[in-house]
Specification:
205 residues; mainly alpha; Endonuclease Iii, domain 2; Endonuclease III, domain 1; 2 domains; 11 helices; 58% helix; 0% strand; elongated; binds iron/sulfur cluster
């Protein structure tokens, strides 16, 4: 299946995909994406609704101790590492960027606690850049569709970037996340009426 044809099918399935994390600033998005690892967006939104009422800037978050922040984000899971990442990232923003989230991929990736996937999401979602973040859904869908043959997210990202034109990347990321979340699920994917059934490797196994 050609890249344009595949994107056309994703457009029909998810014509205007939106990020499902709630945020009002690049900083809030950055915190929400860090919290979303191994957690549902729904749970993250519940936690951030309370957290951001008082702590919605790096300076304000840094008034919390690690333990206090852990308590506030506890229900997102992996709270120890997530609190550490949020505090390190906030410190780096204050020290290097005057408290503002940088708007380039290169700078985002230098922030402590911010990995490639998080940087890509913030760059495309908050700043309108072209980036293709690979999370667990994008990775699974890419392998099933034969677009990648790897469990390594970076290799998968590079394969997708080579296959699809740049102007598709950001929207395609959201469409593949939605597709993986609601149709091409990890267990029992809903293959009925799937437009990619011919290209799909999953059903061939
Ligand atoms: S046919 Fe099934 S497994 Fe393959 S891409 Fe479609 S939903 Fe996913």
């Amino acid at each position: 299946m050609k890249a344009e044809e595949m994107k056309g099918e994703f457009d029909k399935l998810f014509p205007s995909p939106k990020c499902e994390l709630n945020y009002r600033s690049p900083y809030e998005l950055l915190v929400a994406v860090i919290l979303s690892a191994q957690c549902t967006d729904k749970r993250v939104n519940i936690v951030t609704e309370g957290l951001f009422k008082e702590y919605n800037t790096p300076e304000k978050i840094l008034t919390l101790t690690q333990e206090e922040l852990e308590e506030k984000i506890h229900s997102c899971g992996f709270y120890h590492n997530k609190a550490k990442s949020i505090l390190n990232m906030s410190r780096a923003l204050v020290e290097k960027y005057n408290g503002r989230v940088p708007d380039t991929l290169e700078d985002l990736q230098t922030l402590a606690g911010v990995g490639r996937k998080t940087a890509n999401v913030v760059y495309s979602e908050a700043f309108g850049g072209d980036a293709l973040a690979v999370d667990t859904h994008v990775l699974r869908v890419s392998n099933r569709l034969g677009l990648a043959n790897t469990e390594n997210p970076t290799k998968c990202e590079l394969a997708l970037m080579k296959y699809f034109p740049k102007h598709f990347w950001s929207e395609l990321h959201l469409q593949m996340v939605h597709f993986g979340r609601y149709k091409c699920k990890s267990q029992n994917p809903d293959c009925e009426d799937c437009p990619f059934v011919k290209a799909c490797q999953y059903n061939k196994k």
